[in-house]
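[Q] Does anyone have a clean C-alpha cell version of this?
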Amino acid sequence: MKIKKIKKIVKDIFIKNNLSSSDAEISSKAIINAELVGAYGHGLSRLKMYCDRIQKKIINPKPKIKIKKISPSISHIDAKNSIGFVAADIAIKTAIKNAKKTGIGMVAVKNSGHYGLSGYYAEQAVKKNLIAMIYTNAPPAIAPHGALKSLFGTNPICFASPTGSKIPFILDTSISMINRGKIRVAAKNNKKIPKGVALDIFGKPTIDAKKALAGVQLPIAGFRGSGLAWMVDILSGVLTGGNHAGRVKDPFDDFSGPQNIGHLFITFKANLFQKNYNQRIKDNIKTIKKLPKIKGIKEIMYPGENKFNRYRKNLKKEISIPENIRKDLITLISN
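[A] Here you go.
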C-alpha cells in the first residue's frame, strides 16, 4: 500500500477514536516512520492496541497536558494519560526550545504511554545541531540480575549526535537481546525467535515467541544489561513521577488502568565546549571507518546509518502489510 494512503488511513482511525486532527497527525507520522525504518514492532502492529486503550478510556484522547517550567532549562510535563506520541512530541520540542535558549534542555514526563521509537524524537534535536539523550521505561520483561521474576522493562537507551553530514549518529537500543515488539510480531505471525534471547516460565531457553512473552527476556551483557535497565527505570520512572519498579502496565494485556510511563529528554548544544564540534565528530567517524575490517565486512557503520538507509530505500516502495494487520485495519476503519 502506498505510504501516503496508509498514513491517511491511520490518521483517520485515530480521529475516529477522538484524537484531534493535529494529535492524529503526530501519532500517524510516528507509526509510519517506524514502518519505514524497519521497526515493525513499533509500527502498524501496535495501532489496534492504542485504539483499544482509548476505547476503554485508559488513554485520554483529549488530555489537558500541563507543562511546569522549573527553570529556563528544565520543564516537567504531566501528560494526563495522553497517547505517548503526543506527550513525547511536546517534550522533545520543549527540550529543544530550552536548549536553544540556555545551551541545555531537560524535560521529564509523567502519566504518559508508549511513544514508539526514541530515535524518532532524538532526530528532531539533531536537526537543530543538538545532542540528545532519551530514556523511557516499559512493562516488566526482564528479571533483575539474581531475581526469579521479571520486573524491568526492555527500557531503551537513546543517544544522538550531529555528524556534520545528513546521516545523524543515533544509538537507539533496548537493553534486552531483542526488543519486545519483535517478539510480539513473531508471536502474531507464528514465527520463531532467535536462540539465546528469552526463557520460558520455567526458566528454560525458548525460541517460541509466545512462551517468551509469558516468560523472561534476557538482557544484553548479563548483569551489566540488568544494571542499565535499572538505571533507565530510575531516570524515567523514579525521577519523573512515572511508574517504576515493575508497575508500568502491559499495554496489550493489562487494561486495569493507565500505564503512567515516564520519559526523560535531555538536549544540549553540540558546540558548548568546542566550537568546531562538527569537524571533530567528522574526524572521529572518519578515523573509525578507516580501521582494518574483518572478513565479510565491507564498511564500518556508525549507529543510525543502517536505519537511515532503510528509511531512504523504503520511501521509494509501498508498505507491505501482513494479513493479520490488514484485518485489524479493516476492523478499525469499519467500527
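[Q] Thanks! Anything notable?
[A] The chain has a mean pLDDT of 95.
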